[in-house]
Amino acid sequence: MTEETDPATDLIRFGWEEWVSLPDLGLPALRAKVDTGARTSALHASDIETFGPAGKPKVRFTVHPVPERQDLVIPCSAEIVDRRVVTSSNGEGESRYVIGTTINVGGEAWPIEMTLTNRSGMASRMLLGREALKDHIAIVATDRFLQPELSYDIYASTKVRSAAPKRALRIAVLSRENNYSTRRLVEEGEARGHTVEVIDTTRCYMAINAMAPEVHYDGKRLPRYDAVIPRIGASVTAYGTAVIRQFETIGTFCVNGSEGITASRDKLYAHQLMARHKIGMPNTAFAASPKDTDSLMRLVGTAPLIVKLLESTQGKGVVLAETKKAASSVIDAFRGLRANFLVQDFVKEAAGEDIRCLVVGGKVVASMKRTGAEGDFRSNLHRGGSATVVRISKEERETALRAAKAFRLNLAGVDLLRSEAGPKVLEVNSSPGLEGIEAATSKNIAGRLYDHIEERVRPTPVRKRKLLG
């Protein structure tokens, strides 16, 4: 059906009901009732919530574009241009947020203002007021759908997801530190028009119930977030993952889930998980209280050996025992402290160097070679090591991807050693720092993470089926 015009006046003819699209909001098909008695247009919206800076506030909301499909929900956001009281036909006034957006009808597009309100009791999801009607539109009150008809079937298409606009998001960064990584996540998110809030993990508390699970913070319920970026410190892993589980229960997208973080922090479980997925790693042995230290060392190999506390981070609690006697002394000392530890083979050919591969959304987005400080076999940057950009092999890339996938992490720092037998995974970090790798590679790693988040929180296509309309 082509656009219909009145040949006598050259005006575009509108019926009392027309199909429209709102591309800025990711709504490709809506039925709108034309009402010249109403000044401002109105859109049926739910879960209306403001966010963003006071000087430039935004509003986010959800739309059920198909009246018969309550399971189809499209999340939207827009800048607030006004707030005004709208009086209904029965004389009741309602304060509404006003947003600006683009309307598309019959191939023509123009900007309009629109209020957000609950129209669940109305047949039409949208009301088109006289301010939105251009001067060259003629209303034919007795007809409907004079412009090209659309179909609700489009919401079952993958094209809806691929064409969805990059809406403004409300994102929480769970972090207790004002460090480089936290600042970069805030800086990059805000540069993209998102609202990013840093939340101290330990100041969160939870209302745990089946009907309305919530996360509270400083005496108030936290708002709905589109995504949560966990930056959980090792010292608060247990409580931090409990908070993430609560967000998962609510249905918030968490960049890294609670299970993956927990597994990555438990060094023993982490190595068992990698063994289960046949991921190469240094020979490793563990025992709570072996009677024979020699037997434990023989499981790994000959000296030199690495003795590593299970709770170690950033290279702390990791000891290189260059001889069998030294290894025996370290093991006895750790056992005397009742500390849990691993014993690992020392990969000599790595020569104090490892490779950090940063995985985001199932892709290796950057890699760097870390070299330990003079006289230190540990390559951690926190301990004075240095980093340079490095080209990794196909095998190293695939190993890093398999490791991140095994832990179900969307963001992971996978540390590899280059050995004669191929790459061996030392550790999978669920909260990798951004400073060293951004400096070494000159890549915008925070930006790549936001690319992934924006892709994940787009509206998800519904299962294709016949829709009424």
How would you characterize this protein structure?
- It comes from Roseivivax lentus.
- Pfam families: RimK (PF08443), Rimk_N (PF18030), Zn_protease (PF05618).
- Residues 271-454 form the ATP-grasp domain.
- This is Probable alpha-L-glutamate ligase.
- The chain is of the alpha+beta class.
- Among the domains are: 5-162, Acid Proteases (Cathepsin D, subunit A, domain 1), CATH 2.40.70; 170-264, 3-Layer(aba) Sandwich (Rossmann fold), CATH 3.40.50; 283-346, ATP-grasp fold, A domain (Dna Ligase, domain 1).
- It has helices at residues 158-162, 180-191, 237-250, 258-265, 267-276, 293-300, 324-336, 394-406, 435-441, 445-456; strands spanning 5-6, 11-15, 17-22, 27-34, 41-44, 46-51, 58-63, 74-87, 93-105, 108-117, 126-128, 137-140, 170-174, 195-199, 204-207, 214-217, 220-221, 227-230, 253-254, 284-286, 305-309, 318-321, 341-345, 353-360, 363-371, 386-389, 411-419, 422-429.
- A hairpin with a 4-residue loop joins strand 3 (17-22) and strand 4.
- Helix 3 packs antiparallel against helix 4.
- Mean pLDDT is 85; it is low at 461-469.
Task: Describe this protein with a few key phrases.
469 residues; alpha+beta; Cathepsin D, subunit A, domain 1; Rossmann fold; Dna Ligase, domain 1; 5-stranded antiparallel β-sheet; 10 helices; 28 strands; elongated; disordered C terminus
**Average pLDDT metric:** 85
Biggest β-sheet strands, sense, barrel:
9 strands, mixed
Q: How much strand content do the residues show?
A: 25-35%
List the strand order in the largest sheet.
Answer: 3-4-11-5-10-9-8-7-6
The quaternary structure here is: single chain
- Report the principal-axis shape: elongated
End-to-end gap: 16 Å
Radius of gyration: 29 Å
CATH architecture classification name of the domain at 5-162: Beta Barrel
Q: Helix segment count?
A: 10
- Assign the structural class, choosing from mainly alpha, mainly beta, alpha/beta, alpha+beta, or little secondary structure: alpha+beta
Number of strands: 28
What is the fourth-level CATH superfamily of the domain at 5-162? Acid Proteases
CATH class of the domain at 5-162: Mainly Beta
Quote the CATH topology of the domain at 5-162: Cathepsin D, subunit A, domain 1
The helix fraction, in percent, is: 10-25%
Low-confidence stretches: 461-469
